[in-house]
Design a protein that fits this description.
The complex is a heterotrimer of chains A (about 270), B (about 260) and C (about 270). With about 270 residues, chain A is mainly alpha-helical. Chain A is about 75% helix and about 0% strand. Chain A has one domain: MetI-like (MetI-like fold, Orthogonal Bundle), CATH 1.10.3720.10. In chain A, helix 3 packs across helix 9 and helix 9 runs antiparallel to helix 10. By secondary structure, chain B is of the alpha/beta class. Chain B has a domain of about 150 residues: P-loop containing nucleotide triphosphate hydrolases (Rossmann fold). In chain B, the strands form two sheets. In chain B, strands 6-7-8-3-9-10 form a six-stranded mixed sheet, with helices on both faces. Chain C has two domains: about 40 residues, no CATH class; about 210 residues, MetI-like fold. Classes of the chains: A mainly alpha (about 270), B alpha/beta (about 260), C mainly alpha (about 270). At the B-C interface, strand 6 and helix 2 of B face helix 8 and helix 9 of C.
Chain lengths: ~270, ~260, ~270
């Protein structure tokens, strides 16, 4: 027990180390006036702005709007992405029909379609949620597809050998076997949902963290702007940890993912 | 035990490591000497420390105690004096066969024409001249191991270390590779330390067989293989061969069972 | 469905042509639907006939307007990409062989990965103005992350045996770095580059839509304001094409460098 706690403390320290260094570097630059303290407010000023924003509920308000949008789009993407991936992997003609969209669409920035979404769905949340859903479903679908295809045929043969019908085989064998891949896709898609929501909120919007950050910046309230960035950072970080935790619960048979530990480098030999 | 000149001399080798917080003693005060030009095999149950010992001789794993010397010089880090052959071939996938075999010569600093000539000589020795421009990914396991062999021989190490080199191959390829190895070895009789769990392989290839006990590894038996050289394929069926096989297997069996009980 | 069954009996050539054709079904359907919808008198303004769009593209190409914006966007995204990728690969390799660098960068990057770097855009704009530099800076920062992570993990994943074999042959650490670690990491470095490239376009267009005087993203916003939706579609298509072609170029480079050498790895996609 104690050993786990020690390891956790060590991990946290490892993460804090560079952040602390950066913070010191920042403070030095700000206080000595090397960079204009208007552009680079001291950490104290940023901290104050952050606390004020949270206390007054302003940051919380904008953050919850952004969060809600991001999660809604993300949720839709998970369902749509997994369904698409499964159908592509199992139904030949569907794969042929849909696959080109994925391979052609991959390098195309779907965000360029945002204006079209605005036209169809208006400036509010729905256009954003739709775009998020579109953007995030790509990695989820692709990873699901590859995950299911990569399931060792031997696993399926074993299931059939033991008399399992197609339904049971699908839900009890295929999905669990593809789960690591699916979770991988979900983890990749999460930051995308945040990117899209923030960007879309910077364009002609009046609520949300993206709006908050750009408005504060345009009004010369730089400390508040940075505070908004920190709020986004916290949101992104926490959500990622949640996804990792869920992943470790669901995929309990595989070792924890790369973000959890750094393996010792063989190059040090 | 037969007296032997001490070309490779390992004295008092100990190896301890931690696993899940527990101290594991792989080797304890282990001594071994090998004569120049001798082909020595080590057989033993899984986990007995035979590979660990080989890695220590090669310098890839640190020992907790003891000394090793080759031809009178102490050794501890990896180096081209002890050429190593790995079970998974360890070929560089981005280099052709020729590129791989010439790699050690590049490190040595030979100029291009010398390198290529030497590399080609050894590629020819293992019978892969037609494949010198192929990539490892295009070759079968047996072919890859031959490339690895050519690569190790090319920089002419003082002795060869082989870590279950044929373990990943199918039984038929394995037998053929053993025959090829002994043919090649016949030509220049380098000192070889060979680790395997295949008794037949050990008897076929070696002059001397060391049987390891279960962990911590100690020498259970140090046997001479008195079969005539050069070794032909037919020798596997001779009485002497089978007798020795039975003898070693009984010893090994004892140790394997002991290892299972200890686990 | 029967056509499909027949194709099973056909020689492989016919089958792959069929597969290619099926892949076009959805896009063609979409174009046809748009054409039809645009013809109706009650169609909303933003539904534009593909024929009209094609004509507009031609017109814009001929007049050179599209060209100017495309070049502006292209320069920004490629500059940002090259800048970010260079740093990402260099520091990634550095971190793979130098513990201190790894201790600083790895936790930093892993923690900040799920944070949308685009949130820094307003801040960077206040620092560097509305011109090219601010956009290139944001893109570079965003591209740094995936290239760093993939380079680091790729280098770390160098099979230990290869390093042992190299040491066995007498190579020193520096030599091993250039001649073993780097080649071994190359496939994964390319994965990082590909992700970074896609990311660079997303960030580019976000940045241009938020604040720019020219470029394809800005063209989209201008078209919207002017209600010239055919221009808008033209710009979107240009964006898509830019991203797509860049990706293909990268893939071609990858194929050239890695073909055959990594048993299957580089032959994918």
């Amino acid at each position: 027990m104690a050993k786990n706690m020690l390891a956790a403390v060590r991990r946290t320290a490892a993460v804090l180390y560079p952040l602390v260094l950066l913070a010191i570097f920042w403070e030095v630059l700000s206080r000595t006036g090397l960079v204009s303290p208007r552009l680079m407010p001291s950490l104290g000023a940023i901290g104050t702005a952050f606390v004020k924003g949270v206390w007054s509920g302003e940051i919380i308000h904008h953050a919850s709007v952004s969060l809600l949008r991001a999660l809604s789009g993300f949720g839709i993407a998970i369902v749509a992405g997994i369904l698409l991936g499964v159908f592509m992997a199992r139904i030949r003609w569907f794969e042929q029909l849909v696959e080109p969209i994925f391979s052609f669409g991959y390098p195309v920035p779907k965000i360029a379609l945002y204006p079209v979404f605005i036209l169809i769905l208006g400036f509010g949340s729905s256009s954003k949620i739709a775009l998020i859903a579109l953007e995030c479903s790509f990695p989820i679908a692709v990873n699901t597809y590859f995950g299911i295809r990569a399931v060792a045929p031997r696993l399926i043969w074993s299931a059939n050998n033991m008399g399992a019908d197609p339904f049971r085989t699908f839900f009890r064998v295929l999905l669990p076997a593809a789960l690591p891949s699916i979770m991988s896709g979900i983890r990749v898609a999460l930051p995308l949902s945040l990117v899209v929501v923030i960007v879309t909120e910077m364009i002609g919007e009046s609520v949300g963290l993206g709006y908050y950050i750009s408005y504060a910046s345009a009004s010369f309230m730089y400390a508040s702007s940075y505070a908004g960035v920190i709020a986004v950072a916290i949101m992104g970080f926490v959500l990622d940890r949640i996804v990792i935790a869920i992943r470790n619960r669901l995929v309990f048979w595989e070792p924890k993912g790369a973000a959890q530990d750094s393996s010792p480098s063989p190059l040090e030999i | 035990m037969q007296p032997s000149t001490e070309y490779l001399k390992a004295e008092g080798i100990s190896k301890q490591f931690l696993r899940n917080g527990q101290a594991v003693v792989a080797l304890e005060n282990f001594d071994l000497s090998i004569s120049e030009g001798e082909f020595v095999s080590i057989v033993g149950p899984s986990g007995c420390g035979k590979s660990t010992f080989l890695h220590i001789v090669g310098g890839f794993e640190a020992r907790t105690g003891g000394t090793i010397s080759l031809a009178g010089q102490p050794v501890s880090k990896p180096g081209p004096d002890r050429g190593m052959l790995f079970q998974d071939y360890a070929l560089f996938p981005w280099r052709t066969v020729l590129g791989n075999v010439a790699w050690g010569l590049e490190v040595k600093g030979l100029d291009k024409s010398e390198r290529l000539a030497l590399a080609r000589k050894y590629i020819d020795m293992v019978g892969l001249s037609k494949f010198e421009n192929s990539y490892p990914g295009e070759l079968s396991g047996g072919m890859q191991q031959r490339v690895a062999l050519a690569r190790t021989l090319a920089y002419e190490p003082q002795m060869l270390l082989m870590d279950e080199p044929f373990g990943a191959l199918d039984a038929q390829t394995r037998e053929l590779m053993q025959e090829e190895l002994t043919d090649i070895w016949q030509q220049n009789r380098r000192t070889v330390l060979f680790v395997t769990h295949d008794i037949e392989e050990a008897i076929y290839l070696s002059d001397r067989i060391i049987v390891f006990t279960a962990r911590p590894g100690r020498i259970k038996a140090d046997l001479r293989v008195n079969l005539p050289r050069p070794r032909s394929a037919a020798i596997r069926k001779s009485q002497a061969f089978m007798g020795q096989h039975a003898e070693i297997w009984d010893m090994l069996r004892e140790e394997v069972l002991r290892a299972k009980e200890a686990a | 469905m029967t056509a499909l069954r027949k194709s099973v009996a056909c020689p492989a050539r016919a089958r792959s042509t069929l597969r290619g054709l099926i892949g076009w079904t959805l896009p063609v359907l979409l174009l046809v639907a748009m054409q039809w919808a645009a013809g109706r008198h009650d169609a909303p303004r933003y539904v534009v006939a593909p024929t009209t769009i094609a004509a507009t593209i031609w017109h814009l190409l001929v007049s050179g307007e599209l060209y100017v914006d495309t070049v502006a966007s292209g320069i920004r995204s490629y500059s940002g990409f090259v800048l970010g990728a260079t740093f990402g690969v260099f520091i990634g390799l550095l971190s793979a062989v130098w513990r201190k660098a790894e201790a600083f960068f790895d936790p930093l990057v892993s923690t900040l990965y799920p944070v949308p770097k685009i949130a820094l855009l307003p801040v960077i704009i206040t620092w560097l103005g509305f011109g090219d530099i601010s956009k290139i800076a944001v893109i570079a920062v965003a591209v740094f992350f995936p290239t760093f992570i993939n380079t680091l993990y790729g280098a770390r994943a160098t099979p230990v045996r290869l390093i042992w074999a190299a040491r066995n042959m007498g190579a020193k650490r520096a030599y091993i770095f250039w001649h073993v670690v780097l080649p071994a990491a190359l496939p994964q470095i390319f994965t990082g580059l590909r992700t970074g490239l896609a990311l660079s376009f997303i960030v580019l267009f976000a940045a241009e839509m938020v604040g720019s005087h020219n470029g394809l993203g800005d063209l989209i916003m201008r078209s919207q304001d002017a209600m010239r939706y055919d221009w808008m579609y033209a710009a979107i298509l240009a964006i898509g094409l830019l991203g797509f072609i860049s990706d293909r170029i990268l893939l071609a480079v990858r194929r050239k460098l890695l073909a055959n050498k990594y048993s299957g790895e580089a032959n994918r996609g």
